[in-house]
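Sample entry (147 residues):
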Amino acid sequence: MPDFVLQRPEWPRPAASAIVFKGDSVLLAERGKGARGTWSLPGGHIEPGESAREAAARELAEETGIEAELIGLADVVDVLLKDDEGRLKAHYVLCSYYGRWRAGEPMPASDCADARFVPIAEIDSYKLTPGTSAVIALAWRLLNGGD
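Predicted structure, serialized as tokens:
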């Protein structure tokens, strides 16, 4: 018997997120559904017929009201959610795009409880979803000409 119980047979699900920088700050979104108090990047499911980049821009606008120039793909991350007994309950393949703020002020909506630009030096003072800090650091290096 496998050591996982998927709640939905269509896992893994494709998803996309946006890493948006404004000066030396990055946009963080507080999760609203089931994980209130946890901060991450705006993002969500890729809809049928939608590119991952389009999904990242759409989710960014829906969750925060922000428009950004998404420059490139920072990373593709497997998000594995487990129940209290350690069994797999969800699997997302998350395409994280990075870019620069273009317009708007953070206004939480959709499944987002709060949204704000946070100085990069302060992100570790937030309760972040696993891997968020690392992908932000990678995106910051890519945006500023690093590898």
